[in-house]
Amino acid sequence: MLVKTYAAAVQGISATLITIEVSCTKGIQFFLVGLPDIAVRESHERIISALQVNGLNFPHHRIVINMAPADIRKEGSAYDLPLAIGILASANEIGLDTDKLDKYMMMGELSLDGGLQPVKGTLPIAIKAREDGFEGLIVPKQNAREAAVVNNLKVYGVENIREVIDFFCGKSHLEVTSVDTREEFYARQQQFDHDFSDVRGQENAKRALEVAAAGGHNIIMIGPPGSGKSMMAKRLPSILPPFTLHEALETTKIHSVAGKVEKNTSLLAQRPFRSPHHTISDVAMVGGGTFPQPGEISLAHNGVLFLDELPEFNRSVLEVLRQPLEDRQISISRARFAVDYPASFMLVASMNPCPCGYYNHPTRQCLCAPGSVQKYMNRISGPLLDRIDLQIEIVPVPYEKISEQRPAEASAHIRERVIRAREIQDRRFESEPHTYCNAQMSSKLLHKYAVPNEAGLTLLKNAMQKFNISARAYDRILKVSRTIADLENSPNIESKHLSEAIHYRNLDRETWGT
Q: Could you give the CA distance from residue 82 to residue 76 in angstroms, rounded to a whole number?
């Protein structure tokens, strides 16, 4: 008897329908075709054990299973459940309703006792199930809330294969998982573990981070050990504009594919903050591998990628960031596959000014040899620095500031100003495709929306000549000054806005580090 069950394969951050065709005839053989990998082929042993523990026998027939389309590689253990149900239905020994099978998509890894283990990529699979008109989706209970985010689809979370068998035999009903997505989503948006009220002093650095958040600008902080660089970077998500539902869905899909969504969780409510160690490989950073997975730059999509001790990263890892920073997506092409992952993130980097860490320190002497500072800085290429809009120096906080009992400004207050500035940019760029904030402005848009007055142009010219600021910083200064003007709700870029933006280009000065 020929029976079909339905599953899905995740490619990139989207899913493709997989039809599992099972044919049982006389004989005692087992064939599994359709480009299954080792994990899929091993499902045979898991299914046998799961059925035996639950009082059922594996059919003694000639079983041929085709996973169509046959030219797509099937990877992982998530196909155990649809394979097992297909085998039982095709053997026609326990009375499964084969017509009912056409209405449901199933995914789940089987334990030897028949329990279902969570799988990756549940959210894109649920979206695919709805697109293809399935009535429901059956997944492990731990993945049910994640899949239930998709509306117009019945999602059933199950703990054991026996529940699924009884459901298709008509002996019991499964409970539909319901999630009040919007209410839960908005309730969790304000729950931050870190707040800027904990940061004493560093007003200049906090102002720079506010500007970066308001315009979506990349930023690098240079300062000695213990000056608070990492502390402030961790608090940056608390002042970013809250997720929209569309952004949350897109980001959750990426984390779902990578298996990073916590159990019994629906949508991500807060922007991601990724902080990889400096020993990371270039593949782990951009994604890919034998079985393609999103890298750190995609996991940071719509959030923050924090690179602490930037010069300690491998040069090849830093260079692969250049294209995603411009295109805001990463295309990975290999001999066997090609996938696209979104990668629209804010790059936040920190570093010591020299190998010993105390160059330009107000109280401690730098012990590095002559030329060491410039050599240390040369570990970061010019093209990468060219993509970082704000470059600020940070000095240690004096004792008087640390010992203050008065709390600093809270993240919620800073966030209000950032949101107002982003609303101005939303209105400005509503007719501009693929441009959502000032940091994404092209040269054409700069000439349209970021034109200084005569006094501002004179100031900019004098500053570039006096401080020997490179020409590559010109557009960056204009973008940042446009954001500063937005924070003050100013329609025009004034001299004071340009002056502050110039102040945030320390590393472009030829005298720095010499």
A: 13
